[in-house]
């Protein structure tokens, strides 16, 4: 099935070999600006908003195939024949799909705290919390965080989600909206929780970064990671959970930089 790509919003910085960064579910490129700035002293960084997120267009199709077509179209638009690819969570699954579908377009792969497998419906409380926000009568992001609190107990998660609220100061009632397409994210959630079948076509260096406090990559997942990515390796950050680039930024950047230079051999140098 041929998918019609949308023109993704992105920010570009730096110069050198290109690195594409893809955020996770409910996120945006804003979550990765710190990493983008850090890498821009050495690389040409393309930090993007996936479809139905951030400032990218909305579309009914949120399949991995459709999202992959968006990224490949952006690469063609920018004249990028090959690039390093970094993706977190949902973006990490998309990175795996892209590398498997078009291995000739990617030199290295970094997958952050996600494995090539299906996951349970862990975000139902998040959707309930988002639906609890009364956008028509909302006064502030602080109020939104409070309204989410009956379903989402972690204040950091509430703050992360509330950052996706956009306020139109020209409007009165109903001036607030979500930057992500909540309806489509929820309708597509069971699909995005699954993992498309991979053929193991990407044999290049593939780094899987996991947070020791996260349940997304378990010890038993090593076998499926190496099955699908024979050039893969796993690096665990002891201080991190599901957002290693936020919870252990120094350890995360150390691992990424060594990997980009020396592949999986470089990971031994991070200790």
Automatic annotation (TrEMBL):
This is Alpha/beta hydrolase fold protein. The keyword Hydrolase applies. One of its GO terms (molecular function) is hydrolase activity. The lineage of its organism: Bacteria, Pseudomonadati, Pseudomonadota, Gammaproteobacteria, Chromatiales. Residues 18-249 form the AB hydrolase-1 domain. Transmembrane segments: none annotated. It comes from Halothiobacillus neapolitanus (strain ATCC 23641 / DSM 15147 / CIP 104769 / NCIMB 8539 / c2). Keywords: Hydrolase. The keyword Hydrolase applies. Pfam families: Abhydrolase_1 (PF00561). Gene3D superfamilies: alpha/beta hydrolase (3.40.50.1820).
């Amino acid at each position: 099935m041929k998918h019609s790509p949308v023109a993704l919003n992105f920010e570009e910085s730096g110069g050198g070999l290109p690195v594409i960064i893809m955020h996770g579910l409910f996120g945006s490129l804003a979550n990765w600006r710190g990493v983008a700035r850090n890498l821009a002293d050495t690389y040409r960084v393309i930090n993007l908003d996936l479809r139905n997120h951030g400032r990218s267009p909305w579309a009914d199709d949120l399949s991995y195939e459709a999202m992959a077509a968006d990224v490949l179209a952006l690469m063609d638009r920018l004249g990028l024949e090959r690039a390093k690819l970094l993706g977190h969570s949902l973006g990490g699954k998309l990175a795996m799909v892209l590398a498997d579908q078009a291995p000739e377009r990617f030199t290295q792969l970094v997958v952050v705290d996600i494995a090539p497998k299906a996951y349970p419906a862990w975000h139902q409380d998040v959707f309930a919390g988002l639906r609890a926000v009364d956008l028509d009568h909302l006064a502030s992001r602080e109020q939104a965080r409070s309204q989410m609190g009956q379903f989402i107990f972690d204040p950091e998660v509430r703050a992360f989600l509330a950052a996706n609220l956009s306020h139109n100061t020209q409007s009165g009632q109903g001036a607030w909206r979500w930057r992500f397409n909540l309806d489509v994210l929820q309708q597509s959630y069971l699909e995005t929780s699954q993992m498309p079948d991979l053929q193991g076509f990407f044999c290049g260096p593939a780094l899987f970064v996991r947070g020791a406090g996260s349940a997304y990559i378990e010890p038993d997942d090593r076998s499926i990671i190496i099955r699908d990515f024979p050039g893969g390796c796993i690096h665990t950050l002891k201080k991190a959970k599901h957002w290693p680039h936020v919870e252990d930024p120094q350890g995360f950047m150390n691992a990424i930089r060594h990997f980009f230079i020396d592949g999986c051999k470089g990971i031994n140098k991070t200790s």
